Amino acid sequence: MSSSHHPNADGIWHHLHLMPGALTDGPDIDGDATIVVSEGVVRWIGASHGVPPAFATLPRHDGGGALLTPGLVDCHTHLVYGGQRANEFAMRLAGASYEEVAQAGGGIVSSVRATREASEDELFACASRRLEPLLAEGVCAIEIKSGYGLALEHERKQLRVARRLGETYGVTVRTTFLGAHALPPEYTGRSREYIDLVCREMLPALAAEGLVDAVDVFCERIAFSLAETEQVFQAAQALGLPVKLHAEQLSDMGGAALAARYGALSCDHIEHLSQAGIDAMRAAGTVAVLLPGAYYTLRDTHLPPIAALRAAGVPMAVSTDHNPGTSPALSLLLMANMACTLFRLTVPEAMAGITRHAARALGLQNTHGSLGVGRPANFVLWNVQDAAELAYWFGHRPVRTIVRQGRITAQA
Ligand code: DI6
Ligand code: FE
């Protein structure tokens, strides 16, 4: 499965149909399109009749009229954890709410137990089985959070597994430290001491080991307060690390406005986001990450303020939020479908949500999420006639070819 086993993608990929809005900049290409790759980098992209003669010696790949999109980006996942929580699914079916399950000792804390018990190799093995279907759908960059260890050695274990997944599979992984995800059982009633530990010991140690690309907090009634969130943001800022936030998922805590003050890359969930939060995000250039899988699983009915985000021009990303409690989702295309059907995104919005804006939510906008000369070759050819089909079908994977990090990792 190591990426070096895959053939390199150098060549002239022609007879393609470019998804509108897929280029980093410049107008869309109508008609037959070509993308040229050499040494793993995009060298040229344009109308097929204009391919520069300098590339004539490269091998040619006939795209068969396939749709060409950037590689997909899943910008919010909790992919590395032990166990699973199908039992809670059953509890909720019997009428319990997510908050009630958490208060009954289930929820995040039960995944913490299973994660602490698992070895690094065991976590790698089970996370691999979840990463593979995402990659098979064209994901070329993915964010992976810690937050099920909640103690230095176990958070380290999760983040090390995330890094190892990136190296083994040849996929861009951005790690996010989410030590402030839940209060570990041994700190019950001592939230302040735990946050001190997160800020003074866990985060600095893990950052020094190169394991942290960004810092996140679960800011919610059932998790951490606004003041605790700010304390974590200050610790991140002191280390020069960007922040993001699980904000206003179950209630309006004012988390988005706080995150925006810290220049957050993204605010995620945001079902209960206020207009003041939207304005602050807009001013800070913070991405709104929509997570329809969690909304669906929790049978939430409080829609995120899509029309107001759209009107304000806040970029909207869409992600799986893969996690064992509220979004056991392993298809980013299904999330695009749900973002359209449940949240009323347009198809171009949903597609930008799983490419361009998702890359931006990770600070990867200069390398991922759109197609441009000089970028690493990450793109997907799809057996569909119209880009709308990517959000239209569900339970379908119309992949023809995936080029990830300059290698052909799937070919139908
Ligand atoms: N919000 C979520 O939806 C997940 N974490 C978070 O901060 C849920 C995590 C879980 O239930 O395990
Ligand atoms: Fe999450």
- Stretches where pLDDT falls below 50 for ≥5 residues? none
Radius of gyration: 21 Å
The gross shape turns out to be globular
Distance between the termini: 17 Å
Overall pLDDT confidence: 96
Unique ligands: 3-[(4S)-2,5-dioxoimidazolidin-4-yl]propanoic acid, fe (iii) ion
Number of helices: 15
Helix share bin: 25-40%
Class based on secondary structure composition and strand pairing: alpha/beta
| Strand arrangement in the largest pleated sheet | 3-2-1-4-13-14-15
Task: Bin the strand percentage.
Answer: 15-25%
Order of helices and strands: EEEEEHHHHEHEHEHEHEHEHHEHHHEHEE
Question: What profile does the largest beta sheet have?
Answer: 7 strands, mixed
In total, the number of strands is 15
Task: Sum up the structure in keywords.
412 residues, alpha/beta, seven-stranded mixed sheet, four-stranded parallel sheet, 15 helices, 21% strand, binds 3-[(4S)-2,5-dioxoimidazolidin-4-yl]propanoic acid
Brief sketch in words of this structure:
By secondary structure, this protein is α/β, with parallel strands linked by helices. It is 36% helix and 21% strand.
Plain-language structure description:
This protein is of the alpha/beta class. Helices cover 36% and strands 21% of the residues. The chain is built from 15 helices and 15 strands. The strands form three sheets. The protein has a seven-stranded mixed beta sheet with strand order 3-2-1-4-13-14-15, with no helix packed on it. A hairpin with a 2-residue loop joins strand 2 and strand 3. Helix 4 crosses helix 5 and helix 12 runs antiparallel to helix 13. The longest helix has 18 residues. It starts with 10 loop residues before the first strand and ends with a strand. Fe (iii) ion (FE) binds next to loops. The site of fe (iii) ion (FE) has 5 residues, from loops.
